[in-house]
Automatic annotation (TrEMBL):
BP GO annotations: proteolysis
Domain PA stretches: 187-262
UniProt-annotated stretches for the region Disordered: 1-20
GO molecular function, one term: serine-type endopeptidase activity
Family: Belongs to the peptidase S8 family.
Protein name (record): Subtilisin-like protein protease SBT1.2
SUPFAM superfamilies (alphabetical): PA domain (SSF52025), Subtilisin-like (SSF52743)
Pfam families referenced in this protein's UniProt entry, alphabetically: fn3_6, PA, Peptidase_S8
Keywords carried by this UniProt record: Glycoprotein, Hydrolase, Protease, Serine protease, Signal
Domain Peptidase S8/S53 as annotated: residue spans: 9-388
Length: 564
């Protein structure tokens, strides 16, 4: 009935908030596992931090008024770090997004903000929560697999994942395998509700493509139709990104490549068979970390001159706390769950930021962000460049500065600092009107009395440059390492771009001393950035100290604009 509202409850109705909160600051719990998998001692990033939790989302979504009210309550309560695992479609400006409006006020109060990048990858310009006053976190894999192996009748095998690893399933018994989508029907390809009616799947392993409905729901469709097992294969754009889910029947999630191999095998014989073997928890898998396909990508739609996402954090198959018996397919009695998303990577960085804040209570939010970004890892556990869902080197629009390295972030050597006034100058430089700036700043800010700056002049720990003619930007670094220290610059030039830095050495004589350098980006005649018009490189300040070796790295992303 119109006008009747549902009663509000502080209870977690779907598990998302409990999972993210315990990731950020959960206590030590021995014997944590999900259905016997990933067994061990669980702990959040900052286990001795105090949690203040504000419920702003319900079963019907997240209302803008509730989002703003939650952020304002957190500001009034004096929190140090704000973790926002809430995404929305990328918009062309900041002043119409309530998260950007609310977090600007939080930043003005000295609060560090960590936000999820969104789960709309791998397409370009899908990254959300991309304001420069927020740390925007993409999602990566870990070196842990909840392994399943699909053994085909021809002897080929495909490794996959599943949380449901039944002990009573006859893994050594080959099952007939069928791909119902062979008829070309999109519904049967995806195994949606009712699509298997009239298809004989009884006692068979059924191959389903992802999409249309959730993977666990597909399993229920297969099970209700009489299927004995399910293999879920990726769509092409999802590549090698696979996740573990608590399926309702024996199942395996495999890559697009392996799924295509299974299809080829099914079509090659009149009596195709498969076995699903359950291997349990496997540690030390590679490559890791890898950017997961769903992690949203840059360029940054409202501000192309700011590289986003900022950094990667663990966001795939993350084990964390869970309220009992919630969700569409509850794991009965379990107080933990393993789920995936940039919502999971965000609280990892929130907890890490809290640890850095406790070590450096005088650092600004921008200083903490700089420490995280400039110390991030760019290599995986093979010592090679981090890859994406295609197993090809991931670009900066996927990785940002790289994968977080918490211990190095606590001692970065140099930081790029910012004040709230710097962001006002940046907003004016975007061409916003006074009213638009005031939507964010909540004050009587006027661009007529504020000296505006270009996006590239914001003292940010990364560079995102659109090149027609040459451009020069200044950066100021603050010494937070050894009092007496010297740094020299090392540059990896983007293809087709000349990069010059002046001065090419920095000499500090005291803690908190600030020095400024300039960097000029110039297109070379031979430079085009390739067919997509992008090129990448890095600028790194390397200390010459024998006691502590600092490497302060900033990624460089260049977009070529041949119209300029």
């Amino acid at each position: 009935m119109l006008g009747i509202s549902m009663p509000a409850t502080p209870s977690d109705e779907d598990g998302h908030g409990t999972h993210t909160a315990s990731t950020a600051a959960g206590a030590f719990v021995e014997g944590a596992n999900v259905l016997g998998n990933a067994n061990g001692t669980a702990v959040g990033m900052a286990p001795f931090a105090h949690l203040a939790i504000y419920k702003v989302c319900g079963q019907s979504g997240c209302a803008n008024t509730d989002l703003l009210a939650g952020i304002e309550s957190a500001i009034q309560d004096g929190v140090d770090v704000m973790s926002i695992s809430i995404g929305s479609p990328a918009l062309p400006n900041f002043y119409t997004r309530v998260i950007d409006i609310g977090t600007f006020k939080a930043m003005q109060k000295g609060i560090f903000i960590s936000c999820s990048a969104g789960n709309n990858g791998p397409s370009f310009s899908t990254v959300s929560n991309s304001a420069p006053w927020c740390l925007t976190v993409g999602a990566s894999t870990m070196d842990r697999s909840i392994r399943t192996t699909v053994m085909l009748g021809n002897g080929e095998f495909c490794n996959g994942e599943s949380l449901f690893q039944p002990k009573d399933f006859q893994s050594n018994k080959p099952l007939p395998i069928i791909f119902p989508g062979a008829n070309g029907d999109a519904n049967t390809t995806a195994c949606i509700n009712g699509s298997l009616d009239g298809i004989d799947v009884k006692g068979k392993a059924v191959l389903c493509e992802r999409g249309r409905i959730g993977d666990i729901a597909k399993g229920l469709v297969v099970k209700n139709a009489g299927g004995s097992a399910m293999i879920v294969m990726n769509r092409e754009y999802e590549g090698f990104s696979i996740i573990a889910a608590a399926h309702v029947l024996p199942a395996s999630h495999v890559s697009f490549s392996d799924g295509s191999k299974i299809k080829t095998y099914i079509n090659s014989t009149l009596s195709p068979t498969a076995m699903i073997l359950f291997r349990g928890t496997i540690l030390g898998t590679s490559p890791s970390p890898m950017v997961i396909s769903f992690s949203s990508r840059g360029p940054n739609l409202p501000s192309p001159g700011i590289l986003k996402p900022d950094v990667l954090g663990p966001g795939v198959n993350v084990l964390a706390g869970w309220p009992q018996n919630v969700g569409s397919f509850p794991i009965l009695g379990s107080t933990f769950n393993i789920i995936s998303g940039t919502s999971m990577s965000c609280p990892h960085l929130s907890g890490i930021a809290a640890l850095i804040k406790s070590s450096h209570p005088d650092w600004s939010p921008a200083a903490i962000k700089s420490a995280i970004m400039t110390t991030a890892d760019v290599l995986d556990n093979r010592g090679k460049q981090i890859v994406d869902e295609r197993l090809t080197p991931a670009d900066l629009f996927a990785t940002g500065a790289g994968h977080v390295n918490p211990s190095r972030a606590n001692d970065p050597g140099l930081i790029y600092d910012l004040t709230p006034d710097d962001y006002l100058a940046y907003l004016c430089g975007l061409g916003y009107t006074d009213n638009q700036v005031r939507m964010l700043a909540g004050s009587n800010a006027s661009c007529s009395i504020i000296t505006s700056i270009r996006e590239g002049e914001l003292n940010y720990p990364s560079f995102s440059v659109t090149l027609g003619p040459s451009q020069t930007f200044n950066r100021t670094v603050t010494n937070v390492g050894n009092a007496m220290s010297a740094y020299t610059v090392e540059i990896i030039k983007p293809q087709g771009v000349d990069v010059s830095v002046k001065p090419d050495a920095l000499h500090f004589s005291s803690m908190n001393e600030k020095l400024t350098y300039s960097v000029t980006f110039s297109p070379l005649e031979s430079g085009s950035g390739g067919s997509i018009g992008f090129a990448e490189g890095s600028l790194k300040w390397v200390s010459s100290s024998s006691s502590t070796k600092y490497e302060v790295r900033s990624p460089i992303s260049v977009t070529f604009d041949n119209s300029k």
